[in-house]
Amino acid sequence: MDMSNIANEEIERLEWCKLPGKRIRAAGCNARLGVHGDSVPLDLVRVTIGGQEGFGWSRINEQRAQELLGKKVDELFNNRGEVSPLHYDIEFPLLDWLGKIKNKPVYKLLIGDTDLKISVPCYDTSLYFDDLHLEDDDDAVKLIQSQALEGKARGHRAYKIKVGRGAMHMPLDKGTERDIAIINGVREAVGPEAKIMIDANNGYNLNLTKYVLKATAHSNITWIEEAFHEDPPLLENLKNWIQNEGLNVLVTDGEGNSAPQIVDWAKKGYLDAIQYDILHYGFHKWKNLGQELDKANVYTAPHSYGCVYGNYVLGHLAPLIKGFLFIEWDEINVEGIDGSNYIINEGKVEVPDKPGYGIELDHHFYSKMVEKSGWKLCKKLVR
Predict the structure, then answer these.
(1) Is 211 helix (H, G, I), strand (E, B) or coil?
(2) Whole-model pTM above 0.90?
(3) What is the CATH number of domain 119-357?
(4) Is 3.30.390.10 the CATH classification of the domain at 11-111+361-378?
(5) Which one of 149, 164, 185, 382 is most buried, by most CB atoms within 10 A?
């Protein structure tokens, strides 16, 4: 990529604030945490280089921003349009800026121009433990079924169900039986063609995992996520059991505080997909890891919960990795952000062919929020 005409442009201004965000429906508990609620603010940094603004998720502080002021483009990027590892902490706003300068979506910056329309499978990640107040399992099933159908009405054709009610919130036997009833109930509601994933947030053990998978075999689960804390002998046992049972279930992990060796274990066949968080792990690190996983026949399925920005950037990561499975879609409305260029249609996210990440920012509202509760640093002009 020719960067010569912008190589000497400098970071002139950096701004940060939190934008208020709200889920379309409050999220309940999972196997290890209480109610997640509906308030989901977005940390957003706006960078100005050569008079052009870009914006994206970042949690840099003022001290770090001060260090970045005056950095030139040829320090921030290499000649392939990739952000320098030294500046990964603002890689999202930088990539958005470069896309706007080059008038290209981020994915085209990194794979080159293409006429292909990018459409990426996604799943509704909103099916939490919203049923704990209900005594009757049938009532609980009906509630989660109704939520799954809300997702279907929004265009989803794949759904992730939180399980592990017996780990903390319910007695073990009753919680496990409710998990099973809800999995099978959601399958009945969404039909045989939909994809269903389950996520235990480490709330199961090996035997419970086998028990639930066997009891839901006819529901054709696509994957089980974080069944229990990563342990190679247990994961190998589970994988062998799945094969012997004739089940077509993937075993996935890596969202939270995963073991450092988890990628090596996946390459050995103990896991089918890695799920590091897209924002905290990072875009470029995921691109590099995903291409490494492709060579090992391991799938890529990044975690993206609790920040709407992840919904959008995953659409630009997906074309760079052959084994990319799904965008984890967390429906959140953030004041000042317009992501309506991203459309969910029949279970796939249509990624817009727009500059940068293809989302719009109400710059006036953002500036007001910066003044109210954020910070702004500007490079002093030399006269």
Answers:
(1) helix
(2) yes
(3) 3.20.20.120
(4) yes
(5) 164
**What does 96-133 look like in DSSP terms, one character per residue?**
HHHHHHHTSBHHHHHH----PPPEEEEEEEEE-B--TT
- Strand order from edge to edge, sheet including 52-57: 52-57, 42-49, 11-19, 375-378
- CB contact at 8 A, 72 and 10: yes
| C-alpha span between 105 and 103 (Å, rounded) | 7
Give the number of other CB atoms < 10 A from CB of residue 378. 12
The three-state secondary structure class of 349 is strand
| pLDDT-derived band at 383, boundaries 50, 70, 90 | very low
User: 70 and 13 in contact (C-beta within 8 Å)?
Assistant: no
CB-based contact 370:16 (threshold 8 Å): yes
Q: What digits encode the pLDDT tens for the residues 76-121?
A: 999 899 999 999 999 999 999 999 999 999 999 999 999 989 999 9
Same CATH topology for 11-111+361-378 and 119-357? Answer: no
